[in-house]
Description:
Blueprint: H1 11-26, H2 29-46, H3 50-66, E1 71-75, E2 78-82, E3 88-93, E4 103-107, E5 122-125, H4 130-144
Amino acid sequence: MATTPTDGFTAEERAAMKERTAELRAEGRKGAKKADGLQAVLDRVETMAPGDRALAERVHVVVTATAPQLTPKTWYGMPAYANEDGKIVLFFQDAGKFNYRYATLGFQDPANLDDGDLWPTSYALRAWTPVVEKQVVELVQRAVTR
């Protein structure tokens, strides 16, 4: 069954992520740590309200496809993605976490978004559309490019 971008993960995507988690654990200690981080992110996403969950799932797909070098983990209870030094580059905060009216896609200091003396580091995320997906891909690419 095909899904629209706002439907969240397909059954096939969920199965692939479970397989990848098992593969990482089989790789040993470092792989197990990455697998545990991935599982923590997936578990946290699963607890979100449906609208937030669909957004978080799409963010996860974009980040893991665009910047596979980032490691998924939770950070203050939020899905986040860290660089090779273990520093958080970006995170997703669901609207329900603090009863906000929108979810947030945020970037931390290691993200390479610098643009002069002033630039945004957090973005309100209300819906997932092809335009939003393109913007998120571009932000993630910039964040990890040195």
